[in-house]
Each structure stands twice: as structure tokens, then as C-alpha cells.
UniProtKB/TrEMBL annotation:
Its main location: other. Keywords: Cell projection, Cilium, Flagellum. It is found in: Cell projection, Cilium, Flagellum. This is RIIa domain-containing protein. The lineage of its organism: Eukaryota, Metazoa, Spiralia, Gnathifera, Rotifera. It comes from Adineta ricciae (Rotifer). One of its GO terms (cellular component) is motile cilium.
Length: 221
């Protein structure tokens, strides 16, 4: 059956040399990230590459977190993506974070909830936003700090998940401030214990086993 479509031979079709690798890397990224909205994620992926930015790719596939308080749409893998995109900036416009949330198809109401809890507006400190977001997939303040260590550490998976103690203190103080029921004396008791018992022997680093140790003062009220 005759058609009006032009006929091209293989000699007439020029495929850019980098095209197969681009498609291969895209396919691997999509399989690893498992986006819920493939088209929106694909647009964000190629837009990031075109602009020389960090694309929204998970480090590895992850199973749904059964211990989440509610189905927030957030996972540790998604928060790691966002942290890679924003950690170097320190302070980030809130609408820029919102755009990245939309790229990952995280429900708008969950973004709004985080904004309300943190009282965020205009430019926000990324670590503060990350902390509040982390509470949405955590069971308690202590569990939030464990997950923060796991996200920020340079240690390989399954290792101690160490981070600098000075950085940990900032997260703990901010979480305690959000909680509102933890006395300053209690916060200082925790910090003094960890500094004198563990950090001094660990080159200024801390890991979860230190602050969940039976002898560590309670982190929460």
C-alpha cells in the first residue's frame, strides 16, 4: 500500500554519537528512581542535565517505608535527591524547593504541611527544611536524628553513619526548638555527655550508636 511518507535509508539517518549513552543513562536512572509521574520526572531529568544541574536520580532503588506515620510520598531516597540538589546553596528560595517537589510528584499538601510546621517563607535554610521533612518519615525525634546521620554521612551503607558533632548539634537544637517541650538544661546535658564520652575519642564525629546508648541522657522530653 502506497503512502505519502518519505522513505529514508540508513545512510541518510544520522544518529548523534552520544545519543545511545544518553538513552542508556536515562533508562537506568528511571529504573532506579521509579518516578510516580514518568513524564514530569523525565522533563525534570533532561532539564537538569541541560542546565548543568543535579538531576533527580535516586542512588539506588528503595522499597516503601512501612514505618512512616502516613503515606507522605516522601522517602529517604527522595530526600537524598533534594539534598544533593540544594545542600551546596545553604539558603534556598522556597518556590525553588516547591518546584523540585513537583518534579518528584510529592503531594502538594505534604509540602504545605512542612512549610507550616517550619514557618518557612521566602528564602529558607535548606538544613531546616530538610529537618522538618525528615520528621515526616520518622517515628520520633531520635529516629529523625538517626535518619539525618544516615543521609549526611560519607560512610558506606551499613557502616556507622558518622557526621561531624558540630553539625549534629545544630540539627538536635533545631528539633528541640520545634518540639517545644525539651528544656535547655536537658539539651545541654545530652551535648555534654556525647562530647565528653564519645566525640572526644572519635575525632569530632558522632554516630547513632552514641546517642542511643543506654547511658546517654534522654534526647526527648
Amino acid at each position: 500500500m502506497a503512502t505519502n511518507e518519505p522513505y529514508y535509508t540508513s545512510e541518510q539517518i544520522s544518529i548523534p554519537s552520544e545519543f545511545p549513552d544518553i538513552l542508556l543513562q536515562f533508562s537506568k536512572a528511571a529504573i532506579r528512581t521509579q518516578p510516580t509521574d514518568v513524564l514530569a520526572w523525565s522533563a525534570a531529568y533532561f532539564r537538569a542535565l541541560a542546565n548543568g544541574q543535579t538531576p533527580p536520580i535516586k542512588e539506588r532503588m528503595e522499597m516503601p517505608v512501612a514505618t512512616q506515620k502516613i503515606d507522605t510520598g516522601l522517602t529517604m531516597g527522595l530526600l537524598k535527591i533534594l539534598h544533593r540538589q540544594f545542600s551546596s546553596k545553604g539558603t534556598v528560595p522556597l518556590n525553588e524547593i516547591q518546584n523540585k517537589y513537583q518534579d518528584l510528584n510529592i503531594p502538594q499538601e505534604q509540602f504545605d504541611d512542612i512549610v507550616q510546621i517550619g514557618g518557612f517563607n521566602g528564602d529558607v535554610q535548606w538544613e531546616h527544611f530538610l529537618t522538618v521533612a525528615m520528621t515526616k518519615i520518622s517515628k520520633s525525634l531520635t529516629d529523625t536524628l538517626i535518619k539525618i546521620c544516615e543521609l549526611l554521612t560519607s560512610d558506606p551503607p551499613g557502616a556507622n553513619a558518622r557526621i561531624p558533632f558540630d553539625q549534629w548539634k545544630k540539627f538536635y537544637r533545631y528539633l528541640a526548638e520545634l518540639d517545644g517541650d525539651i528544656r535547655q538544661e536537658q539539651i545541654q546535658e545530652v551535648i555534654d555527655y556525647l562530647a565528653n564520652e564519645w566525640v572526644i575519642r572519635q575525632n569530632g564525629m558522632i554516630h547513632p550508636r552514641n546517642f542511643i546508648h543506654p547511658e546517654c541522657p534522654k534526647l526527648e522530653a
